[in-house]
Task: structure prediction
Amino acid sequence: MARRSWGDIAFVGFLVLVLAGVTALLVRPPSVTPPPRPLAAPSFPAQLAAFPSVREVWPEAVAKIPAWSFRDWALRPLARMDATRVLMEEVGDPGKESTLIAFNLQMGLGVPLGTIPNRRGREEHEITSAVAADGAVAWYRTVEEKSGTVGELWTMPADGGEALLLATIPGVTVGRDPKLAISGEDLFWTFPAGGLDRIPLKGGDVQRIQNTDGMRLKDWPWIGDNRRLLNLATGERITVRAPADADITCGPRWCVGTQIVSTTTVRVFVQRPDGSRRAMLPPWVVFPFGLLGQRYLLLQTVPPRGSPAGDKAPSSIVYDLDTGITATLMTLYGTEPVLGAGGVNPGVADPLVYWATPDKATTAPKSESKRNLVRSAATFAMTHQGVDALFAVPEKYWLLDTTALTG
Result:
């Protein structure tokens, strides 16, 4: 925000009155507050550098959480519940029920909320999308049945209780997950193909919201596609203006996308929905993981040959579109293993981001799933000498809550 300048306030003059004395009066016109300036995109760093880590830049927003439960079942962050709690899934060994956990970041303790029913005779996948709001949590997972892949939407009270299956969706594709939102007593969702659906959290019929075909959930209550944005609460509409050949994702404040600039090159860019403030990011930015909270860009980077960053070159960064602050999330080399939920990439559960810490296990694995993962990592390290540190099994995660960022 621009600092107010009193130099714009003029002195009209001194009016000298000669009555029973001489009094000098300073006359000024009333001050007028100038309209706020439109927010401009700060300059993106031209050179890849050893940027400070997110833990140095935003220490209040980073916490360390376990990657495994007391029985060595994998723990995965799913959604932000409130300022102190994160919803996590304790992923059961094959054939075992998984458990939802409310993990308290301040106390470092997890409270079980309830189990996720397990049925024999089918393969049940981990939760891939979740939300917590208005006293409830909801999640999506896929299962393999004889008829094919089926999507399931579940809910549970935020304080714990019995899981309720809300809807089954046949013919879904693994990896094409919906974005969820809870508002009041309803669960809303859209798949990547678009179209907003709703179902009561108490159970009922699925209803398609009229005139939303092709539109996807953004930051609730915003939905949109590559051409338009709509606020479901106020009715506000924004027209998106972007190159026809761009693959773009927009929210009400910022857009991030990719565009083919040559036969061998794809570049990442940012802009406002109306096309203003457009900036093509440097070639060392290769992929946008996401735009969190309509402010923080999570980007994958590859250092150019001879980069001055050396072994501190980041493999992923967080960029604040409001302030221009750039922070390293993970590095390609160094002491920290580069292993998150997606292999060498961080795990993203908007507005949460998590990645592996350097912590190592001090005891032998107790679960079948962890033993298998450790064996796979060891085999990979033996066949790819020198990269074992990059593919170590994480014992704990760093967790960044972008809603808690300041500055």
